[in-house]
Amino acid sequence: MITCGDDFRTIWLKDGDADVVQVIDQRRLPHEHRIHDLRTWQDGVAAISDMCVRGAPLIGATAAWSMYLAALTSKNPIDEVRAAAGALRQSRPTAVNLHWAVERVLRLVENAAPGTDIARLICSDAQAICDEDIEICRRIGTHGLTLLDEIAKNKDGDTVNVLTHCNAGALATINWGTAMAPVYFAHRQGLNVHVWVDETRPRNQGSQLTAWELAQHGVPHTLIVDNAGGHLMQHGQVDIVITGTDRTTRTGDVANKIGTYLKALAAHDNDVPFYVALPSTTIDWDVRDGIAEIPIEQRDPDEVSHVYGMHQGNPCTVKTTANDTPISNFAFDVTPARLVTGLITERGICEASETGLTGLFPDLATT
């Protein structure tokens, strides 16, 4: 059960067995709640590429724990960690947290004193990455809550309707989430908040993950098809759009799950504020032009042609297309900064621009 703010985690060391890292198998949700064991760094690579774990912050944490497993299971831990790092970098190209975590752990290992227990060193840092992410998401929730509070005041307490795309809740991070953290904080303090949840084809992260965890947390929500958002905005049924992001440029462009750009266009046309919630670990300070420079992952066509669900009480996968149907499966798109009302970060809310981001993160912008 998702209980943000308590002991919930999306990744952890197995109780009584520090040789095993455990995660929630998100491929099985919402029909089955299964714990998946990672025993080797190759297991970690597979979990990331197969979307057993999803969400940029969780992917980064999984990479760090995978490098711990690499050091743990080899007589030459530094060489094995380097090998794992190379494979992990290729597992999901768009999410920058993955590369950030890999480089962080590599720097730690390369600078370790002779005789250092490399596995223990990485284990401590992987724990720190997880703890830091929880605190970052808590702060994002606190800052984002101010936006929902203001809307509620302007509506005299009437329902605040939030629209979100993909999953940027607790399941995408270690706890709390990014885009959903303000919603959880609002719900906890008794604000009358409701979430429109995009199904988010083709992997249905909205219908299978976001809707499930909102229900677990008791937050009022309604699942909608991906193309319904514009209609709802035209009829005044959306007060604010909040999404997450897998990579944000230093100029404020944001890469997120495919379809986010269309939501931003609809929001702009209907004067609905469009915010993106992100940890600083998702900022790519080396990229300025998101459309030209951010690599967009293209995934297996089977994700489009097949749908996972339940039939007569049993989980199953069903094919929905003809055998000879050509399929394109771009996993992400880029929303230009001009369509983003603001960025919600752990240090506050800023405009989607280089000035806004460097103003909040001058210490990171120079690295």
SSE layout and pairings?
Layout: E1 11-14, E2 17-24, E3 35-38, H1 41-49, H2 56-72, H3 77-91, H4 96-110, H5 118-154, E4 160-164, H6 181-188, E5 193-198, H7 205-217, E6 221-224, H8 229-234, E7 240-243, E8 247-249, E9 254-257, H9 260-269, E10 274-277, E11 283-284, H10 290-293, H11 302-305, E12 306-311, E13 314-319, E14 332-335, E15 342-345, E16 348-350, H12 354-360, H13 362-365
Parallel strand pairs: 4-5, 4-7, 5-6, 7-10, 8-11, 10-15
Antiparallel strand pairs: 1-2, 2-3, 8-9, 9-14, 12-13, 15-16
Describe what this molecule looks like in 3D.
The protein folds into 2 domains: 11-131, translation initiation factor eif-2b, domain 1 (Four Helix Bundle (Hemerythrin (Met), subunit A)), CATH 1.20.120; 140-365, Rossmann fold (3-Layer(aba) Sandwich), CATH 3.40.50.10470. Helix content is 41%, strand content 19%. The chain is built from 13 helices and 16 strands. The strands form 4 sheets. A 7-stranded mixed beta sheet has the order 6-5-4-7-10-15-16, with helices on both faces. A hairpin with a 2-residue loop joins β12 (306-311) and β13 (314-319). The protein is globular, with a radius of gyration of 20 Å. The chain starts with 10 loop residues before the first strand and ends with a helix. The model has no long low-confidence stretch (mean pLDDT 95).
Ranges with pLDDT <50 over ≥5 residues? none
- CATH architecture of the largest domain, by name, is 3-Layer(aba) Sandwich
Please indicate the count of domains: 2
Shape: globular
- CATH class of the largest domain, anyone? Alpha Beta
What is the share of helical residues? 40-55%
Question: Would you tell me the structural class of the helices and strands?
Answer: alpha/beta
**N-to-C terminal Cα separation, in Å?**
39 Å
Tell how many strands the DSSP assignment holds. Answer: 16
Strand content: 15-25%
* CATH topology annotation of the largest domain: Rossmann fold
